[in-house]
Structure formats: structure tokens, C-alpha cells
Amino acid sequence: MLTDPIADYLTRIRNASLAKHRMVEIPSSKIKKEITKILFDKGYILNYKFEDDTFPKTIKIALKYHPQTKESAISMLKRVSTPGLRKYAGVDELPRVLNGLGIAIISTSRGLMTDKEARALNIGGEVVCYVS
Length: 132
What we know:
This protein is an alpha+beta fold. 25% of the residues lie in helices and 30% in strands.
């Protein structure tokens, strides 16, 4: 049993990226699906597929690399709020990752979103992770 499935999700993507794998397969959950959609929308992953007909349900993620240098699009994935120590931020305290070049994924009352979207909607929440 995993105590922190989001940290496991981020670690699997980080390890696959460092090992230059093209695909990574991760056990599915609603919050992992939302994080995957955000990563795709912001251009950090190439594509994804939700395998809901298999057991256990999985998410297949195609990682994105630069064509010439073979550098991964994801240079940093960092878990911020853990089950043992939750980190909350009001709208005026929302973090800026790499001075706006990266994103912070925030869990709000309106669902998961980036720090920029949360600032625009004027809401705070739990800081899930940093991505750059």
C-alpha cells in the first residue's frame, strides 16, 4: 500500500524521464488524471491515454524530449504538500516557480489548476507540486 500516491506518480515520471524512456505506465486515480491533463495542456508531456478498461486502471504517458539535444521537457518535479505536512497558500501567497517559467499545481475548491489560473480566479488552496 502506498502512503503517498501523488509522490509515487511524480517519482515514476521523474525516473522514466531520467532513464530516457518514451512511455511510462502509472496506476490511475482521479487526481492523477487531473495532474496528467495539466501537464499535457502546459506542454510538459507529449500525450497520454487513460486505460479504464483494464484492471487495475492505468495511465499511459508519452514523455516529451527535445528533438536535437534529447533533453526532457520536464527538468524538475517536486512534491510540496505531503500527507504528513500539508502546505496551503492563500491567493496572495501562491508560489512562483522559476519566476513564472515553471508551474505550481494547486488543489482548490474548484479542482486542480496551475498557480496562474488560481491567481486569475482569486482563490488559494493546497500546493500539490512544482513542475518546470
